[in-house]
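Journal club side-thread
Mid-discussion, someone asked how the predicted structure for our own chain would compare to the paper's figures. Pasting it here so we can look after the session.
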Amino acid sequence: MKEYMEFLKMKQTNVIESGFELNDNELNNMLFPFQKYCVRRALRAGRFAMFEDCGLGKTIQQLEWADKVQKHIDKPVLILAPLGVIGQTIKEGAKFGYEVIELGITVFDQDLKAGIYITNYDNMENIDAYLFGGIVLDESSILKNFAGKTKQLLIDSFKDTPYKLCCTATPSPNDTTELCNHAEFLNIMTRNEMLAMYFVHDGGSTSDWRLKGHAKQEFWDFVSTWAVMLSKPSDIGFDGTGYDLPPLNIIEEYVHTEKRDNGMLFNDVAVSATDYHKELRATINERITRVAEIVNASSENFIIWIGHDEEGELLRSLIPDAIEVKGSDNKGVKKERLLGFGNGDFRVLITKLKIAQFGLNYQNCHNQIFASLDFSFESTYQGIRRSYRFGQTNEVNIYLIVTDTMQNVRKSFDEKQNSFLDMQKSMTESMNRNINNKVSLSKMDVSKSYQSEYCNIQLGDCVQLIQSVPDESVGFSIFSPPFAELYTYSDKLEDMGNSKDYKEFITAFKFLVKELYRVMWSGRNVAVHCMDLPIQKGKEGYIGLRDFSGMILEAFTEVGFIYHSRVTIWKNPVTEMQRTKALGLLHKQVKKDAAMSRVGIPDYLMVFRKEGVHEHPVHCDISVDTWQKYASPVWMDIDYSNTLNGVKGRDKNDEKHICPLQLDTIERAITLWSNKDDIVFTPFLGIGSEVYQAIKLGRLGLGFELKESYFNEAIKNCKQAESDKCQNLLFDAV
């Protein structure tokens, strides 16, 4: 048991801090108290993330962190940043007393002295990561694309860098799983491990992942051990004076488009991205003319966000005092103009979101115009935040130039915005609930049990409860184990389904199998219901199958069980296709690429025998015809609908499916491999299916269950089986 308890302690998700401790007096006095708190946490952790809203001073915090790291380890620290941010970071660094050195195009095999260095992401391939003892990712949302080349290059290049810091206001602009990429970069946990521990895949789209019901609080507690998220200082208990934003005015400018010859009464509404970009070009004159009218009617500063070079060219001809920053401009021109606008050298800045959406401070401007709406909510949010940020004293006006053909884009933007704001609120509340960096998971209540002359069922962890079962006392065991990461039944450490990967699951499972070997009668069998599991492209990057039945086999044979037999339980592939929408089962896939088509995934009943002979061999009193059906390697006649009702056993956090083992399968196995009055044992009781059938078949049921809502339902089902049995005995007596 000691080894098992140590395993549970290791399973608890605690992030090991690998940094060093400083007090507030050792940090730059120009930092505010909440900034010092964040920097100290990041230094102590060694690998950390600051998810802070625009205007909270991420730049000075990351510079202070980099300065203290380079002094502590006497090695250079590198800041990777968008190109447009570099000049501003160097400028702010000088203001707060930090020397920030911009690297040249290529840095290989150079003896760089300790200090703070900066370069842009595009130059990353020209930098030797091993030269640096610390790395800062400014605008680390660049990690969001799990399949992206840049994300993988960052993870691979800085895998062994001891000190890492991620900084962004939008860590997961599209969905929560994007946080997995930050954790992987920081060497906290791989993306696949996080998906297995905390997320469930709903089927269909390979990107449709959501937090498991039982994992929500645990997930945010976990993230809070390696990140802080702030929308304002008061989120973590500091004075928020001065951190109030002025009003934000969203002004929609609707531009009517001329009727085009499409055979319809009205112009077509852009549906796809392709259609939308066609509409942008078709409406360029109407939109740009309106933008110029707004700007020329005012003497105030403006930022104009465009989507195409043609828009910029037309705007420059209509707005004489406007300057444009283009992607084709050299780095020097880009820096000069972007910094110059912030310094008040120019009144009107025309550029694209992908050029200037990150890191720039433009509180000198409180007017923005989106000449083209962008599909990316993150880009739009970041663009608005160049002006709408702490330190802005004026109301901020955001003009959206919308034509009557762009309704869908506007609707999509609103939906993404609402989703992001909800997620930001949830993250802020949950992640900062635990500022002491402690994660606590609930322990088991093992005080509940139900015993009768027909059964003994107990609430608790099967690995701990089986310790009280005598040696050589069980005649037969049948169960369906948790399918590793497929479903999380609870937030308890003891829950084998609550595992970060299959290795962790099998480690826990082997503790049980070892005890099973001890309690089983010699010469008797254990039947394990399982299936091979689909590997999802959205999680692991490819489509395939995981040999879960093989893992089960290895666990049993390793402790001494003999692999006795395998029964294949047929499932209708059409039903499975309709339920899962699996690519390999779709008929259209046969037409597209039959190499990706596969057969349906059956269930298996894996049967293992403990070596030796028992003094009471099993006498199965069945007919020859029945035996021939039972002896078939494929059971074709199992009724999948013949199960106990699992609906009543669900609690509010349960996922959408509960799958009790089919009563036909249990009945056949108990009949074939046990005698009347034998103890039939299930370590994963669930709602009581195995014990229910054991009682009805004249056996003694023994079962353990860790989930209380299931256990309560199991009691009801066992009592029902006992009632039915008593009635049958009374009828037989008559």
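Post-session note: The chain is about 35% helix and 20% strand.
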